[in-house]
Amino acid sequence: MKRIIRLGMTGLLVVVVIAIHAQETKQVFIYSPSERAGLHIAQQTETGWKELGQLCSSDYGTWGAEKRMYHPSVARANDGSWRLVFQVNDKSPLFAAAYSKDLVSWRPQDYPIMTTSQCLQPTVFANENGSFDIYFKTKGGEKRWVSASNDFRRFSKDEKSLIDDVAWTRDTAMVNGLSVDGCLFELSAAEMGVITDYFNRLAQDGKQSQERMYEDAKNFPDLQPVEAVLTITNQEKTISDKLIGIFFEDISYAADGGLYGELIQNRDFEYVPKDHRGWKATTAWSASKPINVVQVDPLSKNNPRYAVLGNDTIYNEGWDGIAVNAGEKYDFSMFVRNYNAKKSFIIQLVDSNDVVLAKATLKTEGSDWKKYDAVLTAKRSCTKARLAVIGVKGIKAGIDMVSLFPQETFMHRKNGLRKDLAQVIADLKPKFVRFPGGCMSHGQGLENIYHWNHTIGPLQDRKPDFNIWGYHQTRGLGFFEFFQFCEDIGAEPLPVLAAGVPCQNSNNNRDGIGGQQGGIPMDQMPAYIQELLNLIEWANGDPTTSKWAKMRADAGHPAPFNLKYLGIGNEDIISTVFEERYEMICRAIREKYPEIKICGTVGPFHAPSADYLEGWDFSKKHSDLQYMVDEHYYESTGWFMHHRDYYDNYDRHMPKVYLGEYAASTPEKRPNVETALAEALYLTDIERNGDVVEMTSYAPMLAKDGHRNWDPDMIYFSNTEVCPTPAYETQRLFSVNSGDRYVATSLSGIPLQLKHRIAASMVRDSKTGKKYLKLVNALPVELTISLNGLMIPEGTLAEGFDGQPEEQSVEVKSFEVKGEKIVLPPYAFRVIRL
Ligand code: AHR
Questions:
Q1: What was the pLDDT predicted at 685?
Q2: Same domain as 707, residue 828
Q3: Confidence of residue 339 (pLDDT cuts 50, 70, 90)
Q4: In terms of Cα–Cα distance, which of 317, 357, 257 is closest to 718?
Q5: 576, β-bridge pairs
Q6: Whose CA is nearest to atom 5 of ligand 1?
Q7: DSSP H/E element including 8
Q8: Distance 506 CA to ligand 1 centre (A)
Q9: Which domain holds residue 181?
Q10: What is the percentage of the chain residues whose pLDDT exceeds 70?
Q11: Where are the alpha helices (DSSP H) in 634-722?
Q12: What is the position in ligand 1's atom list of the atom closest to the CA of 249?
């Protein structure tokens, strides 16, 4: 309760608020109901403790095994702000530490590394001077002390402590019938207001997020066709001309076995169990006798293993078989070193009955590694052929880098891309390509961070590595090939590389440290930063003066690739470890290459997540560092439909937005008409906010049948088929009908409760003068739009799709439109070219 006293003083009304402390405060209990439940808050009521909700969860380590919170301890600082520490497991030399101003938004967690291998039951106390004392125990029962700075970002080295056990005394409460340990606090009414508002907003958001189109019959039982008026103005603003691009990540076999044209699996005999449990150097190969793999005098130090072939045939099964087409030519190559005189090999493609589909002979000589080529022409088509390498009598030879490419690659590039898949991507006319991925970029632990320079040069010298998604990366599709693909399809390259920290979901390393693993040690950061600078030099430099640019020229591209954008970090936890490294990297790039537009990151989730808030806070404070920041959110269709104003109030003077990963989903996961329409609705609002949103990319883009790590994806494929989804059609229609000017329009006459289901957006391409009007009807009834300020001339074409929400494929059709009215059937998306 507040007593408000109004005093009249020299004509001014002064409002004095006297807080009557005792009556106003509420008792709260902060605790964790169980190890995976995170930090909760309960409020004292007349009938006992009532749970209000979850304040934050644990972000530590990998999904599944970690993300646990034990013994949370909360302290209140002199200024009323909060500090939290908790134990993450019983084996790692660290604990979690977080900061909050109001108990509801927490700064992303830091994990200070201690000298002991366990940090059990950390407990925190606020000191008068603003610092904090943290005590924890080890498994042997030793007590240790560490001091934390007021901002809770700096932690002293831990020391032995003699503090009494009483420091670990906790309060107990019965919440939801469970007796739990925790911390008791008194909060003011204002503080309680912030907390209850927060939970109310979350609840409201949760409810809206559950809205599903295929429950419309239940939710809109008597809905009649809707009529609306679209007023088109002559007001325009400049918007980004790069709104729709693509996100390429080697996930779900998108690279090897996918877009990369190589048909031989494990061509270099480098598969190891680290790639995938049970995998070894001979995985995907077979022979009648055990295959001898050795490492003596290898072809390359980066490719130490190779097979030694005697009088035997070894077969490669390809990626779930090798699909070949009758009459097509295939380029075969392999490196050979003979142990005895000149020898020949027979190379065949055979079907499952060992019937020969194609054949070539290879004559080899010399004991040094040498590359041999042959062309195989398929006599018949087969979807599951195998490659046979047959050593003729008396042979003993080492073989490595056994490779088979269709001659028909995309744009006939050598070491090229699978044509049909690349063509579907090219048809999207993406304005940029982000690569080499999301989590794969920052990697599974520090050792697995993606190093772009390991992916260029001769194939045998590239450094293969395991993939965070549970398989192997040959790096045959490396940075040269990515840049070349961008050039081939007229898209800007947008490489995204680690900010000196690995994926926050990384497994424990050998020291038992998971998550960001403390980041690349500071003494190694200069070398890492140099590696990033070398990329810019490699892409844009002059081959006559730069050794990195010369590598590009030697690979066949003397002209610069004209790199303009560089992403640093991928949805990292915006911890102190991240911020320090990110800032160092950006400063170095800005100093040497001020023309490069840096893209930062604001974590894996939208507002009001901790990383989003801290990420934006940091980016705004350091707005000179980056041109834009990368936002990610995978959400329900309901969420997208109810957050269409997401960018309306973004500060236009701050870094721009790259919505680098997003997708709408339903519980069925596969893209369908419902998800495609939710995305279309949202993209009309992105166009409207195209002055602050610079780029967007749906994610993930590719997924191979039988090897999916993630759903939904934009394009599914097998060895023989490419299946673009409704999500693809939405992306394509927005991309090929884009402009650089937004024409203001307004829709009227729509009942309030239906507004989130209808959208219109008009853009103009200032180069061609063409206008594109996009209309979305995500309602179960027909929508008639009367145009105010526009008369569509006869012969005008519209393109689009419609269907039932749960349909997983759509047919994009053309329609003729004219006059002043447009009728959209239920669940429809149309683009009208004017
Ligand atoms: O797009 C799939 C994954 O989602 C990306 O690797 C990662 O950045 C995000 O979590």
A1: 98
A2: no
A3: confident
A4: 257
A5: none
A6: 438
A7: strand 2-9
A8: 13
A9: 2-202
A10: 97
A11: 637-642, 673-688
A12: 6
